[in-house]
Amino acid sequence: MIASGYDIGEKKRGFLKDRNLLEFVEPAKKYLDLYGDKIDYPIDLAYPENDKRHEMTIDQLPAEKMFMDIGSETLKNMMQYYSKLRPYLLMGQLVCTKM
Asked: Where in the sequence is the domain holding 72, given as residue range(s)?
């Protein structure tokens, strides 16, 4: 999301920086230039607060929340797409893409 211009907020940016993950932003921009029309972005994000899951839309970015997952609306959209495909296995952190 950073590579496409979203401001994810200082808290999340700091989290990524501390883990040396911001080094992947520039290479990601190259993929966006080549395949940007095939990449879907989440429409909402989930974050923990007071031991509960909360959600926010990406229109609410930047936010000083430590979002760690996609939101329920994004999941519904993905499931509509993936339910039409043959069986699949997802491993690792979820990334929304069109196949």
From this structure: 10-82
- What is the tens place of the pLDDT at every residue in 13-33? 999 999 999 999 999 999 999
Measured CA to CA in angstroms, residue 45 lies from 10, 23, 86, 92 at distances of 16, 23, 27, 17
How many structural domains compose the chain?
1
C-alpha to C-alpha distance for 1 and 41, rounded to whole angstroms: 7
- Does residue 30 fall inside a structural domain? yes
The pLDDT of residue 81: 83
Name the DSSP class of 87. P
First to last CA, the chain: 19
Is residue 98 pLDDT above 50, yes or no? no
